[in-house]
Every structure is written in C-alpha cells, then in structure tokens.
Amino acid sequence: MNSLSDLNNSRLHPHIPKHFFTVIVICFGLLVLSVIASLVLGSRPVSFNELIAGLFHQNADSYGASVVRKRISRTVFSLFCGAALGISGALMQAVTRNPIADPSILGVNTGASLFVVSGIAFLNINTAYQYIWFALAGAMITAVFVFGIGSMGRGGATPLKLVLAGAATSAALSSLVIAIMIPRSYVMDQFRFWQVGSVGAANWSSISTFIPFLIIGILLGIISTTALNALALGDEVAKGLGVRTGILRLVAALAAVLLCGATTALAGPIGFIGLLSTHLIRLILGPDLRYIIPMSAFAGAIILTISDVCGRLIGSPGELEVGVVTAFIGAPILIILARKAKVSSL
C-alpha cells in the first residue's frame, strides 16, 4: 500500500529528477555539436574559415560560404522537425498509454501522406502551405479512425489493439497512395522524394510556414503535462482529481497531430524519432511528463540532425534521405522495446 501511495505522490507531486541539470548540459552540448556537424559535414566538407565566412556573410562569392548558407536553413529545419516529432511521440504515448506509440507506428504519417498525394493528383497543390493543411486533415482523420478501431471490443483502447489498428490502417492507406500514384507519373515524380522523408529541400519559406504550427503544438503540449501525469495513474484516479479526461485527450492529441502533421507535410513521413527520443529521456529522467515532453524536443532535434548528417556521409557524393536512416536505426529498437515491454501500457 505504501509503495502505491509513493508512486501516486511521485506522479502528482514530482520532484526534479536527480540528473536533470546534467542531462540539460549534455543535451545542449550535443545540440551544438550536431549543429556544427550539420553545417560542416556533407558531400562537400567545409573548413573552419568557410564556416565563419558563411555564418557572418563574408566572402559571399566563395563556394564554401554559399554551401554553409544553404546548410543553415536545412539545419534549422531539421532541428524544428526533430523537436516537433519528439514532442508528438511523447504526447501520443501519454494519451494512448502505449509505450511504443509513434506517429509512424499508429498510421498518422501515412494518413497525412494519402491526403497530400491526393491533393497533388486531384487538386494540383504545390506549395508548402497547401501541403500542411492537407497533411493535417489526413493526420487528424487517421488518428480518430485508428483510436476508434482500437477502442472497439472488450477492454477499450489497449496498447496492442492500437498498434494493430495503426499497422492495418497504415498498410491500407499505403496501398491507396500507390494506387493514386501509379497511373500518374507526374505525381510520382513529385511525391517519391518526399515520401521517404527528407529535410534536404528546406528553405526559409517552408520554415516560416512551419513555425506557427510548431509553436501552437508545443504550447498545447506543455499546458497538458500536469494533467497527463494524473492520467498516467488511470482514468478513474484522474477524474477523481478533477481532470476532464476527454478534453485532455482531445487537446493533447490535437497538439500531437499538429506537430507530426505539419512535419510530415514539409519533410515527408519521417519515422521513429518520437519513439527513440521519448524512450531515451524516460529511461534517464523517469516518468514525469513535465520533463519528458520538453527534453524529448531536445533529443528529437539532436537525433534527427545527426541522422541527416549520417545520411549525407553514407550517401556521399549524393545523400541518403534521413527517413531511411531513422528507419534503419528505429526498427530494431522498436522490436527490442516491444519484446521487453510485451506491449504493456504505461
């Protein structure tokens, strides 16, 4: 009884994790290193002098400085996308109480992809702003559908049922995406590079389009953290503490869908970032979402940026899209997590 009481108190009145400030310093250091690596490394390595010239607009005509300036927007975009996916994964895991929930696993990314390719094929959309709204619509509808299917039957929305519903939905929607693209070669040309997930086409226009959705999603996620801590104790306990569980799930899910939908619209369906970053932070700092959610943003930004750098180095003189790199890393980790957790709820 005492241990249960201690667990409840740790959820409702959490203390600062033991290694929290150490983790912040390490994450900040890794973030700086990943940014430098993203600016310097690639098919064309950049020297220190060229890096300084590119950052401070010196020797504007030099090739090295122009490479750095191009990589600045790409680096900023990868940081933002990684942070958005990290928070989205943390929120999805908290809302569904599913330790392996992730936008790619629950089919949300695929739903966004279907709506984007449908917009390209039937409505001739071709701007980042249009992509975002179509992707958000697809992500929201898919999230509601998967949760509805996973909630049917005895026991409600269990982790296993949600994963199975997400996998089945993702497979069905992927087939529809292929069916739309095959007879339309122009759609396939426009869609094929976007589909694997890449931050290589980033520019300041797409970043400025992305920022409002990022800010709204982060604010909604942060506002929900305390109530989500109570939700982790179970719906009945949360209701007893005055938490409106239905509204809470709606707000937190909306934040998660905004973040992953906007990211998918501009960078493609990059998978496993939310899963990797959230599990890493939870392993170090414990279950308190007040720390997991913001630190998952740091971890997601670092993981995605480093993955992008690895893709450039592996594929040199071309590049390997970051979605391929994250899938290569994330798939084995997902299998390990599923075996250890036995798909149990949080």
From TrEMBL:
The keyword Transmembrane applies. It comes from the Bacteria. It is found in: Cell membrane. It is a multi-pass membrane protein. Signal peptide: none annotated. Pfam families: FecCD. Its main location: membrane. Keywords: Cell membrane, Membrane, Transmembrane, Transmembrane helix, Transport. Belongs to the binding-protein-dependent transport system permease family. FecCD subfamily. This is Iron ABC transporter permease. It comes from Aquibacillus rhizosphaerae.
